[in-house]
Specification:
This protein is an alpha+beta fold. The chain has three helices and four strands; from the N terminus they run ββαααββ. The strands form two sheets. Strands 1-2 form a two-stranded antiparallel ribbon. The radius of gyration is 13 Å and the shape is globular.
Amino acid sequence: MKDLLLDENFDITNDLGEATDQTTEIVVLSQKGNFKKYPTIGVNALDFMKSGTFADGLEGRIKLELEVDGAKITVSDFSSVPFKVEAKWQS
C-alpha cells in the first residue's frame, strides 16, 4: 500500500512510498486506544514480551488484529525471534 513513510522514530517524512511493512509494524506495536479514529486496533506486542504469554497468545493476536484492519496475511513465521509477518491490504 502507498502511504506517507515514517522515519526510524515513527515521525512522518515527506516521502510517499510502499508502507505495508511500516503499517504492519505499527499495528503490532500499538496499544488499543492509541488511535482516536480506530480505538480498538493494536496488538501491544511489548506487553506480550514482558509477560509469560509471549509464545501462547502473540501469534493469534497479531493475525487477528491485522485481519480486522483489512490485511491478508501472506507469510507468517513465529518459530523464532524476531518473527516474520508479511501482509497485504486491499486497496
